[in-house]
Design a protein that fits this description.
The protein has a domain of about 200 residues: Orthogonal Bundle (MetI-like fold), CATH 1.10.3720.10. It contains 13 helices and no strands. Helix 4 runs antiparallel to helix 10, helix 8 runs antiparallel to helix 10 and helix 9 packs across helix 10.
């Protein structure tokens, strides 16, 4: 026996208007969130994490020696900036980061050029470079202190060593990924080896190079702090060690906030420059998403 549905009857299992409305609103909210830029979503997540952090510390009455509240960290950061101590030490670390990063960029691009342009250098030098990078930089840092002293030079060398390899690998990958047919076409039109490199290989490698620069910039911050941990009398790494000794954990967290800001700033600078220089590359344009 068959039954006929009445006109306008709702199919079995279909959601009622009252049930469908919340789902529609939820989908619309998710769509609005997904349309926000990456930095806005990251900021919202960071604010939420800090709020949870503050609530947990207050609710469980956590000792500031173990885990200080965000308000205590903010007060310590403000006082350190106001009296100039964090500014002076931060400037020392910034000099180490910038100089070490600069040395790493020049050296890595130079080695990448030699490796990709000379088969002899590729076979003889590149394996040795890889072998040296397997040694932990924390183990090399004390030796560099002995060789170059506790001044700026040892910090710059250590920073450059950490930032060097990721940029080198990306630069070599980019230079080697040039389309062979395009190289053959350039040579068929009489282009010299130098012209092929300048007008084809290097521009084609720029997206990979900027990806390496982004990683190297973050590693440069790590390198400067590692060098200051091993031996220094100034810098943010020195402040972390001094505050750990005095159990001033709030100041330690304040320094970590400063290092995070420095790393994020370097990241966004590299991304912005990359988007200007390599405007055609999707890989560079999505680094900040």
């Amino acid at each position: 026996m068959t039954t006929t549905s009445q006109p306008g009857a709702r199919p079995a299992g279909a959601a009622t208007p009252d049930q469908a409305a919340p789902k529609t609103a939820e989908r619309a909210a998710r769509r609005r969130l997904s349309d926000l830029p990456g930095w806005a979503l990251s900021l919202m997540l960071a604010v939420f994490a800090v709020a949870v952090w503050q609530a947990v510390v207050v609710a469980f009455d956590v000792s500031p020696i173990i885990f200080p509240a965000p308000t205590a960290v903010a007060e310590s950061l403000y006082s350190g900036l106001a009296d100039g101590s964090l500014v002076r030490n931060g400037w020392v670390t910034l000099k180490e980061i910038f100089l070490g990063f600069g040395v790493a960029v020049v050296t890595a691009l130079g080695v990448a050029f030699l490796v990709t342009q000379s088969r002899l250098v590729d076979k003889a030098v590149y394996p040795l470079v890889v072998a040296t990078q397997t040694i932990p930089k924390v183990a090399i840092a004390p030796v560099l202190i002995i060789w170059f002293g506790t001044g700026l030079t040892s910090k710059v060398v250590t920073t450059a060593l950490l930032a060097f390899f990721p940029l080198l690998v990306n630069a070599i990958h980019g230079l080697r990924s040039t389309d062979p047919d395009q190289i053959a076409m350039f040579r068929a039109f009489g282009a010299t080896r130098s012209q092929v490199f300048r007008r084809l290989q290097f521009p084609s490698a720029l997206p990979s190079i900027f990806a390496g620069l982004d990683v190297a910039a973050v590693f440069a911050v790590t390198g400067a702090i590692v060098a200051e941990f091993v031996g220094s009398t100034e810098g943010l790494g020195y402040v972390i060690q001094a505050t750990n000794f005095t159990l001033d954990v709030s100041r330690t967290f304040a320094v970590l906030v400063m290092l995070s800001v420095i790393g994020l700033t370097l990241h966004f600078v590299v991304v912005l420059v990359g988007r200007r220089v390599v405007f055609w590359s999707h890989d560079v344009n999505r680094l900040d998403h």
